[in-house]
Design brief:
heterodimer; A: 199 residues; alpha/beta; Rossmann fold; nine-stranded mixed sheet; three-stranded mixed sheet; 5 helices; B: 277 residues; TIM Barrel; eight-stranded parallel barrel; globular
C-alpha cells in the first residue's frame, strides 16, 4: 500500500489515480499508517498551510523514514522538506534537507507549464527518464538547497530551478508527475516499485 | 530549453444528458454532437495536448454535478492539467471541481459581477487554480473617447476592447485590458483571453489584443478565439506573446491533430513539448 498524505490541499485524487496506473494501491489519509510501504506527500496551496497539517505528524514521519521506507514529495511536498520558506516566515519547514525556499525572481510568476529537465545525477526515481523530457510545473517559490541533494533542474527565464531532490530514501519533485502525462506516470511507477510494488 | 508554449484543445460540453456530451459548432450554431468528453480528452492527450479545457456551454448550476462527473471520469485516465469553465459561481464550486480532479477553474461573468470572488477563490484554492476568462469585444476608436480606455494599435486600426458578459451576450462598458490588470492584482493565476470578434471565424487570433494584455501582466495569458490553421498558433506566440493558445474547431473537425500543430511550431522555432510516441 502506498500512502497519500492528505493535508487538506493538493490533488489527492489525481495522485491516487496515478498510483493505480503504476500498479500500486493508494490509501489517502490524514494520518501516517505504519503499514504503508511508501508515502506520497502532494501539496498545492501555501507552505504555512501544509506545514500546519504536517507539523503535527513530524514524529510519525521521522519514524516512517527511519524504517528506510521511500517518501515522495510533490511540489509543496518538496518545499516543506527544507528549513524555511519566504512564503511563510512564521512556519518552519521539516528541515530534512538543508536550505531554504525563496520566491522565483522572474518576470512571469508562477512558473507554470511544461518545462524540460536536466538530470544532475543517478536516481532510481528517474529510471527511464531522459534529460530533455518535459514535466508540468506550477509554483511561485523554489528550493535553494545548501547540501548536495539536487537530482534534476530546469531553466526558467535564464534561471536554474531545482526540479527534484533526493537524500537517502527521501525523494521529491517540484513538478507534478501526476499531471505530466506518460513520462510523469513513469516516475510514479518507479516510486511504486521502490515501495516494493506497493500492493 | 525554455518553458514550452502550450497547446490547449477546448471541449464545449452540453450537460443536459447524464454523462455530458461534446458539442461541435460554429458560433453556437449548427450543433453536432461529438461524443463523450472523457473519451475526447483522452484522444487529445494521446495527440500531445498540454492541457484540456472543458467548457460548460449550458452553464447551469443544476448541471454542476454532471460536470464534476465528467472531470472524474476524465482524470481517472488523463494525466495532464484540466480546466473547467462555465457554471462556476462560488468558491465552493472551485473546491468541488478541484476535488473531482480538475486543476483550475475559469470564471468570466461571475468575476465581473463579483470581482471579490477572484480574491476569495485565490485565497482558498491558490492563484494557480484561478483562471479569469475575459470575453473582449473590439471597438474602433474614432477620437474624443479614451477616458479609462486602453487604446491598442491593431491591424484594423486603433481600437479599445470591452468586457462582455453572459457568453458574449451583454456589454459591460468595462475596459478589458484594465480588467485583466485588476484580475491579476486580485490573485488570478492566469488569463484566458477570448476575442469575440474572432471567435468561430477561423481567420486567426486577435494577436494585437493578446500582445496588449500579455505585455502588461506578469501571469500567463492564453490566447483564444479565431484559430483555424497552424499559422494562427504561430502568430499568437510570436506576435501576440501568448504563453498558451486554446482552440476548438481546428481539432474537433479533424483538420489538424495537436501533433501536426506542434511539428509546425517546432519547425518555426517555437518551443513546444514534443509528442512522445
Amino acid at each position: 500500500m502506498v500512502g497519500v498524505l492528505d493535508c487538506g490541499s493538493g490533488n489527492l485524487r489525481s495522485v491516487s489515480k496515478a498510483i493505480i496506473q503504476g500498479k500500486g494501491l493508494p490509501q489517502v489519509s490524514t494520518h501516517i499508517n505504519p503499514d504503508w510501504e511508501g508515502l506520497v506527500l502532494p501539496g498545492v496551496g501555501a507552505f504555512g498551510h501544509v506545514m500546519k497539517a504536517v507539523g503535527g505528524l513530524a514524529g510519525d514521519l521521522l519514524g516512517f523514514l527511519d524504517d528506510g521506507k521511500p517518501f515522495l514529495g510533490i511540489c509543496l511536498g518538496l518545499q516543506v522538506l527544507f528549513e524555511s520558506s519566504e512564503e511563510s516566515l512564521d512556519e518552519a519547514g521539516l528541515g530534512l534537507m538543508k536550505g531554504r525556499v525563496t520566491r522565483i525572481a522572474a518576470a512571469k510568476v508562477p512558473h507554470m507549464g511544461w518545462n524540460s529537465i536536466q538530470l544532475a545525477g543517478e536516481s532510481p526515481l528517474f529510471e527511464g527518464v531522459r534529460g530533455g523530457d518535459y514535466f508540468y510545473f506550477v509554483h511561485s517559490y523554489a528550493a535553494r538547497p545548501d547540501e548536495d541533494v539536487v537530482v534534476a533542474t530546469c531553466e526558467y527565464e535564464g534561471r536554474e530551478i531545482v526540479s527534484a531532490v533526493e537524500k537517502d530514501n527521501v525523494h521529491a519533485c517540484q513538478f507534478h508527475p501526476e499531471k505530466s502525462g506518460r513520462i510523469g506516470l513513469r516516475i510514479i511507477r518507479n516510486f511504486v516499485n521502490m515501495s516494493g510494488g506497493g500492493r | 530549453m525554455a518553458l514550452a508554449r502550450r497547446i490547449i484543445p477546448c471541449l464545449d460540453c452540453d450537460l443536459a444528458v447524464p454523462q455530458g456530451r461534446v458539442i461541435k459548432g460554429v458560433k453556437f450554431k449548427q450543433h453536432v454532437y461529438a461524443g463523450d468528453p472523457a473519451e475526447r480528452a483522452r484522444e487529445y492527450e494521446e495527440q500531445g495536448a498540454d492541457e484540456i479545457v472543458f467548457l460548460d456551454v449550458t452553464a447551469s448550476r443544476e448541471r454542476r454535478e454532471t460536470m464534476a462527473g465528467v472531470v472524474e471520469r476524465t482524470t481517472d485516465e488523463v494525466f495532464i492539467p484540466v480546466t473547467v469553465g462555465g457554471g462556476i459561481r462560488k468558491v465552493d464550486d472551485f473546491v468541488r471541481m478541484l476535488r473531482a480532479g480538475a486543476d483550475k477553474c475559469s470564471i468570466t461573468t461571475h468575476a465581473l459581477r463579483e470581482p471579490d470572488l477572484v480574491s476569495r477563490a485565490a485565497e482558498v484554492v491558490g492563484s494557480q487554480a484561478v483562471v479569469v476568462s475575459i470575453d473582449a469585444q473590439r471597438h474602433a476608436v474614432g477620437g474624443g473617447e479614451g477616458k479609462g480606455r486602453t487604446v491598442v494599435d491593431t491591424p484594423m486600426g486603433p481600437s479599445w476592447y470591452e468586457c462582455w458578459a453572459y457568453g458574449g451576450m451583454e456589454g459591460t462598458g468595462l475596459d478589458a485590458i484594465a480588467w485583466a490588470v485588476e484580475a491579476e492584482e486580485r490573485g488570478a493565476g492566469e488569463i484566458l483571453l477570448n476575442s469575440i470578434e474572432a471567435d468561430g471565424m477561423q481567420t486567426g487570433y486577435d494577436w494585437a489584443l493578446t500582445k496588449a494584455v500579455s505585455e502588461r501582466l506578469n501571469i500567463p495569458v492564453i490566447a483564444s478565439g479565431g484559430c483555424g490553421r497552424p499559422e494562427h498558433f504561430l502568430e499568437a506566440f510570436t506576435k501576440g506573446h501568448a504563453d498558451a493558445a486554446l482552440a476548438a474547431s481546428i481539432f474537433h473537425f479533424g483538420r489538424y491533430t495537436v501533433r501536426e500543430v506542434k511539428s509546425y511550431l517546432a519547425a518555426h522555432g517555437v518551443p513546444v513539448r514534443p509528442v512522445r510516441r
